[in-house]
Amino acid sequence: MAPDEPKVWFPSTESFAKVLPAGNRDLLRVIAEQAPGSLDELARITGKAKSNLSRTLRTMEGYGLVRLERGERGRITPRVMHDRVELSLPLTISTRRVDRAHPLRARALRAFGASRSNSSSDRPVT
Q1: How far is CA 7 from CA 39, 43, 109, 125, in A?
Q2: pLDDT value at position 115?
Q3: Residue at 117 is within a domain
Q4: What pLDDT shows up at residue 11?
Q5: Residue 15 neighbours by CB under 8 Å, 6+ apart
Q6: Could you give the C-alpha distances from 79 to 7, 36, 103, 120, 122, in angstroms and in order?
Q7: What is the predicted pLDDT for the residue at 109?
Q8: What are phi and psi of 57, to 5 degrees?
Q9: Which among 104, 106, 124, 105 is positioned nearest to 114, based on CA atoms?
Q10: Would you give per-residue pLDDT tens digits along the chain (126 residues)?
Q11: CATH number of the domain bearing residue 46
Q12: Does some domain include residue 118?
């Protein structure tokens, strides 16, 4: 990974799985494809409680996966920041300190308006 590429560090595979299980990936897909104008609208689309959506999205916002924009009348609008996440999972233990402290990393990439291929032309989010 190039030094300028964004990285999200997870302390374990379990923490990664808690943030991006299939249901949360589906939620991100719904937000990206349907662009709900508010959490209320997202709750109607998904059938999930607004309070649960808010908690989940704030966690994802902390990892830079979504942005929660405050709009008119305090309405919060979720925006997906990336269209894919790549996972780098080392299979051996490194003696480098950073690898021991952060054994799992993910890279969120922006490809909106760009090719969805895995080519080197995909630009990382900065």
Answers
A1: 27, 30, 10, 9
A2: 35
A3: no
A4: 72
A5: 104
A6: 19, 9, 28, 25, 20
A7: 54
A8: -70, -35
A9: 124
A10: 555 566 677 777 888 889 999 999 999 999 999 999 999 999 999 999 999 999 999 999 988 889 999 988 889 999 998 877 877 777 777 655 444 444 455 656 554 443 333 333 333 333
A11: 1.10.10.10
A12: no
φ and ψ of 103, to 5 deg: -70, -10
Question: Do the domain assignments include residue 124?
Answer: no
Question: Residue 80 is which amino acid?
Answer: V
Query: Amino acid identity of 101?
Result: A
Question: Which ranges in 35-92 belong to alpha helices (H)?
Answer: 39-46, 50-62
How many C-beta atoms surround the C-beta of residue 108 within 10 A?
20
Range of the structural domain that residue 93 is part of:
8-112
Query: How far is it, in rounded angstroms, from Cα 66 to Cα 58?
Result: 8
